[in-house]
UniProtKB/TrEMBL annotation:
It comes from the Bacteria. Residues 8-17 have a biased composition (Low complexity). This is ABC transporter substrate-binding protein. Residues 1-23 are annotated as: Disordered. It holds the Pfam family SBP_bac_1. InterPro entries: Bact_solute-bd_prot1, SBP.
Length: 439
């Protein structure tokens, strides 16, 4: 896939989540069904075309919300369409922008927004979100940061998550290893993974995606940030993890040397999660979207925040977005009305509960419906609490190339084909070259 400036796309942080949603052939077929034509006005009613890209339960959730909006807003008719899953949305939107026939709203991965926002057809939603009934500062910092490009709000937050560690309590008991607690370190994680590993039984301490995509990469950023690094240096012309990235990769290399890490060879991390669900992995670094599958598999589990090097709490969030496109005054205004409505707590809480997201704002978190959901789902509160310290990847047009270069480095270290220092040098050469290209 390519973003509008021709650079390759990095998949969003929750690529494993979207892959899990997309694995149903039935859902794909239903999503591809022909939808009524959208756009324009009829009898004073404005029609808005929405490309949501959701499948399975998330598709049902968003389309139920659309139906409710249409009932409550007789002057606006939102029509779901596009026939494409979220993983292919960037390619679809890019082609649509090039042809001049684009939707009014599209679900865009957070890692793709900066490239999409290069198009003048992408609306500036700064005033739209400021004027909403929920104060902009009430949204979690990660949700705000993910939609802000050069100081302007270029999309509405659509989905929020975070990473933590889910532990299989049965495997911990069998290995005689105490369950980890908040404040643990990456050295602890490495040691625990080694102790949990039982090669004769085919049990791994942990897992890591091994194809070099964004699901491989985003797990390393909290380690880099905790060590004082950043994705992009403050000068904007070089990476900000030339040194800290090496140290983070040394932790990855140690897991590989200990043979305590299951390396998933396929995109989407589905095999890695199946190993955990089958009771053959002690710890999975994952997000809240995985909890329903874990509960269905009847895994006795424990959720703990990510380890760190410093002891300070830190995680990453991979928000996705609703981008609004300018199709003229009436349609633009109607699209803005819909996304503003969709992000309000009363709608957000239904989306969060039904589709497996975290609350976009503190107001949503405070609603009785979310409190009930959180109380009834062991470990869910841990994911929500981590939003206080969650960071997001930079909304930058060169992020795709940086991610691709780092993904290659991580895989080479996981497979024992390169040292952390050598892998990071190659990564820096490729990523720095992308950063010097004028944007």
């Amino acid at each position: 896939m390519e973003v509008p400036d021709g650079t390759p796309s990095a998949r969003s942080a929750p690529s494993a989540r979207s892959a899990r949603r997309a694995r149903s052939a039935h859902a794909r077929a239903a999503l591809a069904a022909t939808c009524p034509a959208a756009g324009g006005e009829s009898g004073g009613r404005v029609t808005v075309e929405l490309w949501h890209g959701q499948t399975d339960t998330a598709r049902t959730a968003i389309e139920a919300l659309v139906d409710r909006f249409n009932r409550e807003h007789p002057d606006i008719r939102v029509v779901p369409g596009a026939g494409v899953v979220a993983d292919a949305m960037l390619q679809k939107v890019t082609a649509a922008l090039a042809s001049g026939a684009y939707p009014d709203i599209a679900y865009i991965f957070g890692s793709d927004l900066a490239g999409v926002a290069l198009s003048p057809q992408v609306a500036n939603l700064t005033d739209t979100m400021d004027e909403g009934p929920t104060p902009w500062k009430n949204y979690w910092p990660a949700a705000r940061a993910a939609v802000t490009v050069k100081g302007q709000v270029r999309a509405a937050p659509a989905l929020l998550d975070s990473l933590a560690v889910v532990c299989n309590k049965k495997l911990f008991r069998e290995a005689g290893v105490p369950l980890p607690e908040p404040g643990w370190r990456w050295r602890d994680f490495q040691d625990v993974a080694k102790r949990l590993t039982d090669r004769e039984r085919g049990v791994f301490g942990t897992g890591w995606p091994g194809v070099g995509d964004e699901d491989t990469v985003w797990r390393l950023w909290p380690m880099v940030w905790d060590l004082g690094g950043d994705v992009i240096h403050e000068d904007g012309r070089s990476i900000g993890f030339a040194d800290t990235g090496v140290r983070a990769l040394e932790t990855v290399a140690a897991l590989a040397r200990d043979k305590s890490v299951y390396i998933d060879p396929k995109p989407g991390s589905d095999q890695m999660y199946q190993v955990f669900l089958s009771g053959r992995m002690g710890m999975a670094v994952t997000g809240p979207w995985q909890l329903p599958d874990i509960q269905q598999a009847k895994v006795d589990y424990h959720v703990v925040p990510l380890p760190s090097y410093s002891g300070r709490p830190l995680t990453i969030s991979g928000p996705d977005t609703w981008a609004v496109f300018d199709n003229g005054g009436a349609r633009l205004k109607a699209a803005q009305t819909f996304v503003r409505w969709l992000t309000q707590p009363e709608q957000d809480v239904r989306w969060d509960i039904d589709a497996g997201s975290l609350p976009l704002s503190r107001r949503t978190e405070a609603l009785p419906a979310w409190r009930k959901k959180s109380a009834g789902t062991p470990g869910l509160r841990t994911f929500t609490d981590t939003l206080e310290t969650a960071r997001v990847r930079p909304v930058h047009p060169a992020y795709a190339q940086i991610s691709a270069a780092l993904g290659e480095a991580i895989v080479s270290v996981l497979l024992g084909k390169s040292t952390p220092a050598a892998a990071l040098r190659r990564c820096a050469d490729q990523a720095n070259a992308a950063l010097i290209i004028p944007r």
